[in-house]
Amino acid sequence: MDEVFNLIKQEEKRQEETLTLIPSENYASYAVRDAVGSILTNKYSEGYPGKRYYQGNKIIDEIENLAIDRAKKLFSVPHANVQPYSGSPANSEVMIALLTPGDTIMGMSLASGGHLTHGHPDITFSGKFFRSVQFGLNKKDEIDFVKLRQLALKEKPKVLIIGTTAYPLILDWEKFSEIADEVDAYLVTDISHVAGLIMGGAYPSPVKYAHIITTTTHKTLRGPRGAMIMVTDKGLNKDPDLVKKIDRAVFPGMQGGPHENTIAGIAVCLNEAIKTEFKIYAKQVVHNAYVLATELKNKGLTLVGGGTESHLILVDLRPQNLSGNIVAEALEISGIVVNKNSIPNDTAPAFYPSGIRLGTPAVTTRGMKEKEMKQIADWIFEVINYVKEFRLPKNTKSRSNFIKTFKQKIEKDKFLLAISKDVKTLCKRFPIPN
Ligand SMILES: Cc1ncc(COP(=O)(O)O)c(C=O)c1O
């Protein structure tokens, strides 16, 4: 047997025996994985249903149409393109559809919780090929809509792209749409993180306000790694050619043959998301995050935005004078998997940021509830307390070696390994979908 399968088995064991608290991760159902791993991977189907460049696509057309119809119905939109390979290509495709190089775009900065593809300067497609204007958060970790409006009036972006990857509070879609309308910009809402919550009625939908919606399908939506671009009625009113522009930007603009195995997985996950159980799930995700955040706060930790209104929590480790790297590494040895993350107005570099990001979508899929959130909060706090003496060196050159030595040191640490044993016991009671 190929050694890859041995490694897959090892990864399966890791996922089973540890707590995934990375807010962008989840467990796709067996049915979703069955579709993704199916013989559909063998087929080329460049083009769109009914308009392919290859023969043999009768059944593929039916599958892609099913995914499209389900997306349209679920999100109440007149058009959905289910071919984008993932979230970053989807956002690039929207920009190619709406803009010419050099045009102005406006988005929330990465450091404030926005995504790289929303105009991060210099190193990304969106920041290199367009004139990117970025905005951040005020000292209270809020979006200052007065300032945002002034900036939009001054810079006149053609696209306002809004959606977050590390921001715990609800985004006010209506306020963004008022500003976009005032400057005649397209409002693109990227709901990658919260699509499943929106489907479950646990987070406000931007459908009434946006012209275009992009989303990944593998986060709270619990589907395969993929993405969708949707055009709203408001979008069609602004620009009747929007459907054509988006579809052409996806293929042949940026992509070749669609991954129909993934598209089948998207169709399956959308059918799961329409069920009552999914609504219950989405509400529990938000409730679990609230309980986890409240417990962490009660223990004295500082949370960005003062808590959460979604699935996501950002812990600000500056009061502890700790680096996100130290805490994330120690939590991993304890069987709790999170990611280091910048916090708003962080002065530390992105690779050694001052926070950690947590989320509840995956543990909620396992069936965990309030009681387990309290236990997880206890463990997180114990680990943070345990590593509080470890300071990242001021000298930036010695940081990488410091982390390497720190990792070696904690690998066999009895305190952390004892927590990982308890984590394993908890995980056994809440198996991952298989
Ligand atoms: C808001 C947002 N948009 C886009 C993306 C990019 O998705 P992908 O990693 O599938 O390219 C992410 C991924 O984390 C995201 O959080």
UniProtKB/TrEMBL annotation:
<protein>
    <recommendedName>
        <fullName>Serine hydroxymethyltransferase</fullName>
        <ecNumber>2.1.2.1</ecNumber>
    </recommendedName>
</protein>
<dbReference type="GO" id="GO:0004372">
    <property type="term" value="F:glycine hydroxymethyltransferase activity"/>
</dbReference>
<keyword id="KW-0808">Transferase</keyword>
<dbReference type="GO" id="GO:0008168">
    <property type="term" value="F:methyltransferase activity"/>
</dbReference>
<keyword id="KW-0554">One-carbon metabolism</keyword>
<keyword id="KW-0028">Amino-acid biosynthesis</keyword>
<feature type="site" description="Plays an important role in substrate specificity">
    <location>
        <position position="218"/>
    </location>
</feature>
<comment type="pathway">
    <text>Amino-acid biosynthesis; glycine biosynthesis; glycine from L-serine: step 1/1.</text>
</comment>
<comment type="subunit">
    <text>Homodimer.</text>
</comment>
<dbReference type="InterPro" id="IPR015424">
    <property type="entry name" value="PyrdxlP-dep_Trfase"/>
</dbReference>
<feature type="binding site">
    <location>
        <begin position="114"/>
        <end position="116"/>
    </location>
    <ligand>
        <name>(6S)-5,6,7,8-tetrahydrofolate</name>
    </ligand>
</feature>
<dbReference type="InterPro" id="IPR039429">
    <property type="entry name" value="SHMT-like_dom"/>
</dbReference>
<feature type="binding site">
    <location>
        <position position="110"/>
    </location>
    <ligand>
        <name>(6S)-5,6,7,8-tetrahydrofolate</name>
    </ligand>
</feature>
<comment type="function">
    <text>Catalyzes the reversible interconversion of serine and glycine with tetrahydrofolate (THF) serving as the one-carbon carrier. This reaction serves as the major source of one-carbon groups required for the biosynthesis of purines, thymidylate, methionine, and other important biomolecules. Also exhibits THF-independent aldolase activity toward beta-hydroxyamino acids, producing glycine and aldehydes, via a retro-aldol mechanism.</text>
</comment>
<dbReference type="InterPro" id="IPR001085">
    <property type="entry name" value="Ser_HO-MeTrfase"/>
</dbReference>
<dbReference type="InterPro" id="IPR049943">
    <property type="entry name" value="Ser_HO-MeTrfase-like"/>
</dbReference>
<dbReference type="InterPro" id="IPR015421">
    <property type="entry name" value="PyrdxlP-dep_Trfase_major"/>
</dbReference>
<dbReference type="Pfam" id="PF00464">
    <property type="entry name" value="SHMT"/>
</dbReference>
<dbReference type="GO" id="GO:0019264">
    <property type="term" value="P:glycine biosynthetic process from serine"/>
</dbReference>
<dbReference type="GO" id="GO:0005829">
    <property type="term" value="C:cytosol"/>
</dbReference>
<dbReference type="InterPro" id="IPR015422">
    <property type="entry name" value="PyrdxlP-dep_Trfase_small"/>
</dbReference>
<comment type="similarity">
    <text>Belongs to the SHMT family.</text>
</comment>
<feature type="modified residue" description="N6-(pyridoxal phosphate)lysine">
    <location>
        <position position="219"/>
    </location>
</feature>
<dbReference type="InterPro" id="IPR019798">
    <property type="entry name" value="Ser_HO-MeTrfase_PLP_BS"/>
</dbReference>
<dbReference type="GO" id="GO:0035999">
    <property type="term" value="P:tetrahydrofolate interconversion"/>
</dbReference>
<feature type="domain" description="Serine hydroxymethyltransferase-like">
    <location>
        <begin position="3"/>
        <end position="380"/>
    </location>
</feature>
<keyword id="KW-0963">Cytoplasm</keyword>
<keyword id="KW-0663">Pyridoxal phosphate</keyword>
<keyword id="KW-0489">Methyltransferase</keyword>
<dbReference type="GO" id="GO:0030170">
    <property type="term" value="F:pyridoxal phosphate binding"/>
</dbReference>
<dbReference type="GO" id="GO:0032259">
    <property type="term" value="P:methylation"/>
</dbReference>
<comment type="pathway">
    <text>One-carbon metabolism; tetrahydrofolate interconversion.</text>
</comment>
